[in-house]
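Table 4 source record.
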Amino acid sequence: MPATAAPAAGQHLRSWQLRTFWLLLSAYAAYYLCRVNFAVAQPLILKEFPDLTNAQVGSIPSTYAIFYAIGQIVNGTLCERFGARRMMTVALCFAALTNLLFAFATSFSMMLVLWAVNGCAQSAGWSLVVQTIANWTTSQRRGVVIGLISTCYTVGNVVSWLLAGQLCGSLGWRAAFWVPSLILIPLAIVFYIFLRNSPEEAGFPPVRDDGLEHAPQTGNASATTSPAPLSTAEILRITFSNRILWILGIGFFCMNAVRYSFMNWSVQYMADFQGRSIKGSALTAVAIPLIGSLGAISAGWMSDTWFGKRRAPVCAIMQIGLAVVCVGFTFVPRGEWILATALLGLAGFLIYGPDMLMSGAATIDVSHPRAASIATGFTMCLGALGSIFSGAGVGWLKDLAKGDWNLVFYVLAGLVLVAAGFMISIWNARPKGAR
């Protein structure tokens, strides 16, 4: 290759990396338009269906979490065969369809079924994002890149809550479901046209430096020069025999119970306990994902630069801080919504950092290079099982305490300390080959 051609080729690769980054970020952020909108609509659903208890309404996101967990393993395995380009396109369309139908739901059972299907569709998301990012990056930059791209779910959360809050206030809660569904369809089409699963599919040599090049999933001509993909049995054996991955997954189980408790109930907390309107509650609750994005970026940067690619120390430190914040909520009096908003923002910062590392960089670091997607799906599956508590569990605690929130926050503090304990147990875990 002529000397002048090498810089041009490198620049062309970087443009593809940026394209891939923005497509994945936009697509996963769009998922949230049709995921966390339920949290904003929830108080109005309770008003329209007064016979439902907090635990019953909470069982809707819990059912979502059950099917999301099942889908993580199934879709994580399929990702190794079909890639993000096909699977995320189909999943985006299914998420849009379930939200459109949810807008016309007239019964609790109908809501339950539709949100379960939405959970299946949404599960074909983060593991595909992580797998594709792993294909397009080196291990040295992976923590920072995944930290940056993890802002997709914080940005998506912010936009979703602001949009849903506005729609609920002006058109009613049903608009918070059918309007986002109309946004996802054209985005899915753009995603399919412009994304490629790996550098090889775009005509570049492999970028990954962790031992094995990526095996294309789409039957591209370059597949003949790449190793054959692992069998499903091999992928599952490698994944389920990984001790550190189990520790990460169990810690993520506890972490997700806390994260989704804040996501599912913060709008209702601001409305019930702090006396805000639905629109005002959604506006203040966006402090969680908004400041959370800074936590995700900071955690990725700190783990790469201060801790030599060790993710666990950053997770443990932030989780201990989060436990203190959870207890702090019990001292916030009614009507002090500004103080409550500040604590929500601080909680978001301390939630999204460990969440990003545990489900992304840390999982990739300890997984087989050609099983990163199923490893991420495994971690996300356990996390999704933990998030089941955040719906019906928190609703049950709230009913048990007759509307008081202190019991909820004490339980969340305990859960996050358990997660911190698991991270401390793998304090020195690093990517394969890192020093």
